[in-house]
Amino acid sequence: MDKLLDDSGRLLVLGNEAIVRGCIEAGVAFASTYPGTPSSEIGNTLQKIGHEAGVYFEFSTNEKVAVEAASAAAASGVRAFTFMKHVGINVAADPIMTLAYSGVDGGMVILTADDPSAHSSQNEQDNRYYALLSLLPMFEPSTPAEAKEMVKEAFRVSEELKSPVFFRTTTRINHARGVIELSPPEKEPAKGRFEKDACRFVNIPAFARMNRIKLLERNEAARRISENSKYNTVEGEGQVGVITSSVAYTYAKEWMEDVSILKLGMTNPLPEDMIADFIRDKDMVVVVEELEPFLEDQVLRIARQNGIGTPVFGKRTGHMPRAFEYDPDVISSIGIVPVRAGKEPLKPPAMALPSRPPMLCAGCPHRATFYALKKAVGKKDAVYSTDIGCYTLGIQPPFETADFLLCMGGSVGAAGGFSAVTDQKVVAIIGDSTFFHTGVPPLMNATFNGHSFVLVIVDNRATAMTGHQPHPGTGRSYGGRETEALPIEPLVRACGVDYVRTIDPVDVKGTNKAFKEALEHEGVAVIVSQAPCPLELKKRRALVISTYTVDQEKCVKCHHCVEALACTAFYRVGEEVRIDPDLCIGCGVCAEVCPRGAMGVVE
What we know:
The protein is α/β, with parallel strands linked by helices. Helices cover 37% and strands 19% of the residues. It has 21 helices and 25 strands.
């Protein structure tokens, strides 16, 4: 049995694992997600142990579906947990805003894993504003141990208010490790019953207006809870006050000296009376928070409304940076708050370390796809509309197959716009999981409106970028449930596309031919480039490796392999191109690309 399922003891765990344990102790019966870093390990862990823990868990088609499914479970009286990365909330916002009106019966927690500094995201939006927008309560833990306990409190508050509750983490909480104390799980119902109440759950305008008033009443009740929450606390003494939350609290606590800290764990609604009392007798107040001045602006408002003249410093005054995540160096450089003796900013290494940008893995089928695609496009004036996934790395030389990027599924919708207003060749690139996520509606839109472009679905048989989670195209084989894989080509044809070809990108010549034909097609042409991710094959021990090498006698040092294919298994010693046997997986694409036939399998 997995250690996370023990009834007692202490464990050193990842923040995401601590959150899973908190859900188990809270008696969660339903959980759903679409995988996205930094929240991915929550789903990976639930996939492994959820069934044994008595939790129904699913990888949903997208975040909107995940919230809708979880909301139905919570409306039926069971505790439901749905989680996603910060940009996933954008996809799920539609049901969330109305769910705030109807509320729930069983506890429901919506985790948003924010990503300050955009470590693995296309932006670093601050999702605390979704709590303000929806008038839903929000909790923010500062350590993995607190995250485990706070999840349970979030469910308790959710059921007290009959309202969904936001739970905001950041990358440093999700991916930090900490020691947690295990407690016996609560006994909550695994099955429920939906009691019909059209006025509450069917928000036509007449009912929505009534439910808006109820939402405001719940919001006021949440404010009273916030005033007395055990996660909103004051510690330390001093005439300099610090107001902080999330991981920024840990930096302030460790580095700042002779300050009084108001630590906020429930950050919406804020405990306004508590804040007013805290700042009233201070010489100055510093607000320490990552990203937007969410707390700072409300502290300024609370001070003004209460006639308090204490100066407030933070992002608005230029003392704290507004972009990117914080660290001890940021805290120590504020300049107006004393730093603990012996604490000094980290000094950069004497020798600059070489940069290592993210890159496609050795043997990645996307590399062969891009090579054949670029060769087929040739000198044509083409626009490449790309999407969210490993294949976004096609932006790098020598492929440069990324000219426009917005969001999940955006490549297909944008391709239609490009085709309507330009005479350029338009190529959209999307992954298999992303296609199921939000790529189908824009493809239907393209055939409906008569757009003309080539759509390349790079199908590597997994949600690869976030850890090889399954999706409708792979079928389900976890949690005691088995489902069949949904094939892509018939789905594409059902969207009204006449020209569909499924190819193996390792067959470079065949792939190149298919792309040439597609580029000449009038209307939407779809190429499904299907080959499994080699990392996933390695995990399943299904990869038979035949290492390739370069015959130096045949090689003419033209470097076409390096300059046009750029496999990460290649390296150069002087003018010689060599293949690293520890990286090569034997896909054989290099042998097809080499004009002199100098690449071959090691005997």
